[in-house]
Design goal:
single chain, about 400 residues, mainly beta, 18-stranded mixed β-sheet, elongated
């Protein structure tokens, strides 16, 4: 009778602790240890209540989260592997990596805590796999160095890694990702994206919200963005196939290749080439030394110290502003649609061997200087009655005005 009362008392006490949020271990947690080739592996699995928020925080290892439409609770499996020939040594290290799982309020926690000193074993790997209901409102994942992979969640997802890669797909709300140096890849995300890596590449397939992508030196590629983007890289290339809204792209030295942009564009590179297929708004493009090609834009400011410039001006229905095209040493070719109305002013400073040519009779070209001495070219005119100013200047190079077809 006394033992029965003690058992009942213990059960009631544990239940009270669990309800108060002080019970750390999951009730359904199980542990298995087995030989894995020359190493030893431990598998810890368990189940937690299907709450709306998940926090995973581990000292080492990868984290994988998958959302399921029919998933009710939260199921997790932690697999740890130590490269120890001795089972006794392996068990000692397994004991030093504490895995706890619990629910407190509306948040489920899964924690991997290395307690064996500041230095973790060299021959060690781990992965935490978590199955969650798709209707999670927030999933936050943190690892000191492993990869992070999350998909199939209707809410917001946040991930932080000390240096591993990060992958998101099929996320219903926004995402935030930060890694010390790994790559970041995003499939389809419905909300806003905030992506930061110390030096890895960033790739986004389809974003329905605004995109902020920053990397210390890797390349950035966006296939489709629905609401504009800000892209910054310390030196990698930038590629955007399609983006609605305003786009700002900046790199310390890589090339920038843009497709169809549904708003104004700001482009800046320390020395790479710039290419743009079309834009609905005004374009500002600047490079320290590469060529610039802007096709299908209403107006543009393009500047390079030593490259050629090609610009095609068309009426896109957007705001039209003054255009200014300038290079220190290179040719400039301007294609003008038949309905574009502009005031043209062009000049070539050192025109020996270079000149200004025009397919438009209303653009008048004249030269100054002797045939064998310093010579310069200028051109002025109004097309379709005039409009915003189109200023074109090169220190040494040809300038050509052509009909856009």
């Amino acid at each position: 009778m006394k033992r029965a009362l003690q058992t009942v008392g213990l059960a009631v006490g544990l239940a009270l602790l669990a309800s108060a949020g002080f019970l750390s271990k999951s009730w359904a947690q199980e542990t298995h240890i087995a030989r894995e080739g020359s190493a030893w592996g431990e598998e810890v699995n368990g189940t937690l209540a299907g709450v709306k928020i998940l926090r995973v925080k581990v000292d080492m290892g990868a984290v994988v989260v998958r959302g399921g439409q029919q998933q009710q609770g939260i199921n997790y499996v932690a697999h740890i592997r130590f490269g120890n020939p001795s089972e006794q040594d392996a068990r000692r290290q397994f004991d030093q990596y504490k895995i706890t799982a619990y629910v407190k309020g509306d948040t489920a926690w899964i924690v991997g805590d290395w307690q064996g000193g500041r230095r973790q074993p060299r021959h060690c790997s781990s992965e935490f796999s978590v199955m969650v209901p798709r209707e999670m409102t927030l999933v936050k994942l943190e690892t000191d160095g492993g990869n992070v992979d999350a998909s199939g969640v209707s809410g917001h997802v946040e991930a932080e890694s000390g240096g591993g890669s990060i992958h998101f797909d099929d996320i219903g709300a926004g995402v935030n990702a930060e890694t010390g140096g790994g790559s970041i890849e995003v499939g389809t995300v419905s909300g806003e994206l905030g992506l930061h890596t110390g030096g890895g590449s960033i790739e986004v397939h389809h974003a329905n919200g605004k995109v902020l992508a920053e990397t210390g030196g890797g390349s950035v590629e966006i296939q489709s963005g629905a609401q504009g983007a800000i892209i910054e890289t310390g030196g990698g290339s930038i590629s955007v196939r399609h983006c609605n809204g305003k786009l700002k792209a900046s790199t310390g030295g890589g090339g920038i290749d843009l497709g169809d942009i549904g708003g104004p564009v700001e482009i800046d590179t320390g020395g790479g080439t710039i290419k743009l297929t079309s834009a609905k708004g005004h374009v500002h493009a600047e490079t320290g030394g590469g060529g610039i090609e802007l096709y299908g834009v209403p107006s543009a400011q393009a500047e390079t110290s030593a490259g050629g410039i090609v610009v095609k001006l068309v009426n896109t229905g957007g705001e039209r502003r003054d255009s200014d095209l300038e290079t220190g040493a290179g040719d400039i070719t301007v294609y003008l649609a038949s309905d574009v109305a502009v005031n043209v002013w062009a000049s070539v400073d050192l025109a020996n061997g270079h000149k200004i040519t025009s397919e438009f009779p209303d653009i008048h070209v004249r030269s100054e200087g002797e045939s064998y001495g310093p010579k310069s070219y200028t051109a002025e005119g109004k097309l379709n009655g005039g409009g915003p100013t189109l200023k074109v200047h090169t220190s040494t190079g040809d300038i050509c005005f052509k009909h856009a077809h």
